[in-house]
Amino acid sequence: MAEYVIGLYQFEGTEDNHLSFPAAAVIMLIQGGEPGWWNGDYNGVQGWFPSSYVRPTEAGDPIPAAEAGAAGALAASGDGNYDIGQHDAQQGVALPPGWISCVTEEGNVYYLNEATNESSWDPPTADGAAAPAAGGYGGYAQQTPAPAGGGVMTSLPPPVQHQTSLRGDEDGDDDGGGGGGGGGGAPVVPAARAAPAAAPTPQAAAQPVQHEKFNKERDAFVDNFWGDANGQSGFDILVLKHRNGKEVCKDMAEFMRERSALEDAYAKGLAKLAGTKLGDEEEGTLKTAWNQIKMDMQTQAKAHATFAKQLSTELDQAIMSFKDSQKKSRKAYEKIIAEEKKNIAAKIPQVDKYHKAYVERMKECELADVKEARGQLDHMTKMDYMKVQTEAAKARKRRDQASDDYVKWINEYNTSLKSWEDSMINACMEFEDNEIERNKFLRDRLIKYVELKRSVNAESTSSLEMVANSVNSSNVLVDIEMFIKKTGTGSVRPQPLQFGQDTGDLAKSVSHGHGTASPMSKKKK
Description:
This protein has about 525 residues and is of the alpha+beta class. About 50% of the residues lie in helices and about 10% in strands. A five-stranded antiparallel sheet has the order 4-3-2-1-5, covered by helices on one side. The chain has a three-stranded antiparallel sheet with strand order 6-7-8.
């Protein structure tokens, strides 16, 4: 039974082998599995698309038959071939006699001549000839579509490119077939009923994991750092960004460390001040309010001491630990990319060397071909003509060897280039993931800082509320009454001296009520 997926977002393909579709599109899945690039069919059009743009079908999702397109017949057959009539009717292809359409295991259509065993990716022409492959040079045929604009694609799946010899004839013998310039560029004839070449597969070399934040609606590192700017490579700029992020982490950790030191010193100062005897001689309700202020200072001291410790453990140390973890990732990719670029640079002189040798051998071969062609017109002797033919055969052999050597080093270079490209893709994704992770981590730490400070402030507010209530509850009249009750000496006032009154009573009255200071009056000034 065919498997379908539903489009989460609109996807606009940028290459010929991409499958564009709108949001909510029902797509028949031809090749899926691991996250990355999948192959599917939508409205009869087949191509590649990112797996992050789709979701599996759920109960109630509509699966109209029309959405499956030509791939429906492929899924039903299961043998790598499907009914030619059905496919041709859907695609509007009328094949010449002797030609049939076939499908690879990956779901790619190609055409096979049952009589000659000739094969082609494109429909054969009306005269029954295989369609010429695009981009051929001599016998050097490009078996599958190349990326747009030449070179290797970066963030999108490159088709597998198969390189063959640059020689004019595969067996090295022209047989009058045109020397080194021939070759129709058609796909290689398969030995059995199979595809002319491997079907395009996404990221055939390293297959980096599909970026979990992949979103073509925004720019991403993987699409924007392949060139140089201001004397720096794109990778160097990403490394600098990563290092700057590390320095910011270090600065924020130092900030929290200094903030913690300030909080700790403040807490110790508050605790010391709260423990003094200052103001302890106050009495009554005002003394209660004053004591509440000292208790508030003790509470504040504990809160700020706790805050200082949290700043150190939950912010300073946590940020430094995070910084060190990201440093390892950057160092690893710096080493990998340096090695990859070194490998590429080592291949360039060899490519140049064998390219020059190939050009020279081609020139020699052309001269030998001309000399051989003129041999009969110049009425050479049979012996001389045989020598010319021998020299021409040797020239073609040298040309063929030169073409093989040149292709070998082209492939060596492209292999190194592809390895660097895959490493760059992985590095870009890793660096962007690290930047997203760093930003999120620091944002969470700043939120944590706000929460901790808010907690200190809340505790301070609660304690100050108790102080305010105590101060507002103080009453000077109540304090005076309490003082009188505690220390009052009586309410009888001295009487005026009467005529004939005993002076002994007068001396006693004066000594008790006047002239001697009470203990409360002896204050340190």
